[in-house]
Amino acid sequence: MMKWYGKYKMMKFTRSILLLLFLLTIGYACDYVEAPYFENHETGGEIEDVQSNVLILDFTGHTCKSCPKAHRIIHQLTEVYGDRIVPVAFHLGYFARVSGDKYSMDFNTGEGAELESYYNFVSYPIGLVNTLSKNSLSPYPSWATESAGILEKEALIAIDATYQFDQVASKLNVDVSLIPVGTLSEECGPNLRLAMYLTESHILAWQKDEDVTPMDVENYEHNHVFRKAFGSIWGESVSLDDVGISNPLLLARSVTFEDSWLPQNSSVVLFVYNSETMEVIQSILVNLEI
Fold first, then answer.
1. β-pair partners for 86
2. What is the pLDDT at residue 184?
3. Omega into 214 within 30° of 0, i.e. cis?
4. Which of 33, 144, 194, 283 is the most exposed place for a label (fewest CB within 10 A)?
């Protein structure tokens, strides 16, 4: 049987105390822009009590000295909530430019440039919590509070993913299953889109960090770095009409790794959202075990 991502239980008291500690310790700062061998992994379990996860898109850059504050908030949230926090770090814009010998690693992507053009960022760090709406960009001190409210909700959609990695072709093949487990509104149903991203963690490279001395940190650990979308950055249209537990919507998608990307440090982020409201309905994080 499949294990449906999103089933995760934790004492509300513990969550509340840790959330309070986040809010007490968060500082605030921002930087402004100037001018044939396969490995197969599957899961098993039941589809019940599926809870909502939280997608956090972190817009950042390696020369943004305030951005590590946002990285630390995401790390704290994942320490508390585990894989119910689904982070993606997009390095883009002015502070993601390659410069000099130190900041020579290029985290930029074509998809990131598309998002920069769409959202027209004026300060970093900035992010989106469970939404893609350009009117909902939020600073990192609010991410813990925003996430806590979403995590209390029951999910409307269950997402599952299994994968195979072809080491010869450096190709990741992902099989996706979608099932509605709640009541989707009439407005929501026709506007569903599924997006899939590849991310990589544990990348050691330079990063500016205003909270340490010296500010230029040589072996900073970059996590959840966006590498590539499975298709469009905005995903693809999906329909859950006549879909149920006995007949889930099944999709197969793939992505090819570049030579410098490490599969064992990579993850797949999947999320379904309403293209009318741009609100995320459900998301999951699949860490590759290769």
1. 55
2. 77
3. yes
4. 33
